[in-house]
Amino acid sequence: MKKIEDRNEAKERQKASNRAAVAKYQEKFKRINCRFEPWLYDEIVSTGQSVNTFIIDACKEKLEKIKKNQ
Question: Residue 49 is part of which domain span?
Answer without folding.
Answer: 32-70
